[in-house]
Amino acid sequence: MPGRPVPSRRTVLRTAALTPVAALGAAACSPGDDGAAPARPTAPVELGAEGEVAKGATKLYPDGNVVVSRAEDGTLKAFSTVCTHAGCPIKKLEGTKLVCPCHGSEFDARTGEVLHAPATAPLIELPVRVEQGRIVASPGA
């Protein structure tokens, strides 16, 4: 949208780093509340068992504001599900498409790329790894 600044990666991550993991569900905004941007923890977040994301699949972890996909070669990718348009948490995954409830932006959950405006910036990619059979995402830098 012309004239509207797009939040920088640093701004999104700084905002996301304000709330501990236990409070994520309560802190996340949804249509009709105060519109505050959701927060993510400052420390790495354990999302679930490695087997939860099969090859070629994508899984949304709404309490962590993270989506994880696994390529056919087994590599994992993770993205913040905080919309880059207005900071709303995305809680809807349709196949491999994330749909923001606030203004209808759509993103490819495998690449983070914008599929439908008003968002113009891709989702923030997060470092992701497997530790002791568990998927762990980091808030990034």
TrEMBL record:
Organism field: Streptomyces parvulus
Q: Name its co-factor(s).
A: [2Fe-2S] cluster
Q: What does this protein do?
A: Iron-sulfur subunit of the cytochrome bc1 complex, an essential component of the respiratory electron transport chain required for ATP synthesis. The bc1 complex catalyzes the oxidation of menaquinol and the reduction of cytochrome c in the respiratory chain. The bc1 complex operates through a Q-cycle mechanism that couples electron transfer to generation of the proton gradient that drives ATP synthesis.
| CDD domains the record matches | Rieske
Q: Which residues form the signal peptide?
A: 1-25
Query: Any idea where the Rieske domain is?
Result: 45-137
User: What keywords does the record list, in alphabetical order?
Assistant: 2Fe-2S, Disulfide bond, Iron, Iron-sulfur, Metal-binding, Signal
**InterPro entries found in the cross-reference section:** Rieske_2Fe-2S, Rieske_2Fe-2S_sf, Rieske_Fe-S_prot, Rieske_Fe-S_prot_C, TAT_signal
Q: What is this protein called?
A: Cytochrome bc1 complex Rieske iron-sulfur subunit
